[in-house]
Each structure stands twice: as structure tokens, then as C-alpha cells.
Amino acid sequence: MKKLDAYSVSIGVLGAIDTFLTATVLPIPVWVTFIAWASFFILGGKKSGLIQSIASNLTGIAIASLTLLAISIIGGSPLIAAICVGLGSAAMVQASKVPILTAIPAIVWGFASTVGTTVATGKPITTPGIDNPAIVAAAAMIIGGLFGYLSELWGDAMTKPSVVEREQTRV
């Protein structure tokens, strides 16, 4: 099977499973799992893409959490929120100096997913326990990355090597 066809099957089936699980037993936003899934692929896939994606996404979640916490402590006026988000944005770029965090967009996806989860759930960042939006977003990001990894493994397993690839392995 050609690679894109194999990935269509693996991503299609696993996307359906992800959607069903997040709608029934996993109280996490499916859109965050899909963002993490895309993050995995954009970072090159494989084990290294999974590690870099999760590390970057979680860094964005941590920066967003600190930003939202600062806004809640200082006061939520539009000016305060803008200043805090500006500082958080600068922190995301600075974080990319760390070798595993060089993909700034993956950090931003973690940040945005945390803010989005906060808005979607109506729960502030100060919410204790597993309902905390940062914990929910982190779980969704990790699960989404794992779905990406599984879809790649399955897709690759269904991919038939081309004639050129078969000839190269014989040499």
C-alpha cells in the first residue's frame, strides 16, 4: 500500500477511536489531541518527534499556566492580560533556546491549547485537581502525541516498499 493510503487508514481509524474515547471515557478535548497529533508529525515523527513534541507542548502549557496565574493574581483587565500574554509569548521564544524545544510553534500549540481548554471548560487555572485546565490540556497533548506515534507505526507497517526501495535494500 502507498504511504499516504496507509496513513489515511491508520489516521482515519485512530481518529475515530480518539473521537469516541474523548466523547465517552476520556474527559479531554479532542481538538487538543488532534493539535498534538499534528505537532508529532510536523516535528518529524518517530520517537524523536514524539519526545520533542510532548516536551514542547508541555512547555507551552507551563508558560500558559504561569501567564494565566499572573493574570488572575494581578487582575484580569485587558491591559494586564495583554502585558502578561506578551511576556508569556516572549518566554516561549526564549524557551526555544533549549535544544529539545527549538520548534516554537509546538510550544505555542501547548500555550493556546491551555488557554482554549480554560475557556472551553469555564474553569480557571486555579482549579484544584484533575479538572485543572493545564492538567486536562497536558493529558490531551500526551495522548494526542501517542495517537500520532501509533498512527505512524501502523501506517508504516501497511506501507509496501517501492521497487526502488526494494532494490536499494538488496545491494
How would you characterize the overall build of this protein?
The protein is an all-alpha fold and 171 residues long. The two termini are 23 Å apart. It has helices at 3-24, 30-42, 46-74, 78-95, 104-121, 133-158, 163-170. The longest helix has 29 residues, at 46-74. It has 7 helices and no strands.
The number of distinct β-strands equals 0
Q: State the secondary-structure class.
A: mainly alpha
Largest sheet: none
Radius of gyration: 19 Å
Whole-number average pLDDT? 95
State the helix count.
7
What portion of residues belong to β-strands? under 5%
Shape estimate? elongated
| Assembly category | single chain
Helicity level: over 70%
Low-confidence spans? none
Which sequence of SSEs, written as H and E, runs from N to C? Answer: HHHHHHH
Span from first to last CA? Answer: 23 Å
Q: In total, how many domains does the architecture comprise? A: 1
Q: How are the SSEs placed, and which strands pair?
A:
Layout: H1 3-24, H2 30-42, H3 46-74, H4 78-95, H5 104-121, H6 133-158, H7 163-170
Helix pairs in contact: 1-6, 2-3, 2-5, 2-6, 3-4, 3-5, 3-6, 5-6
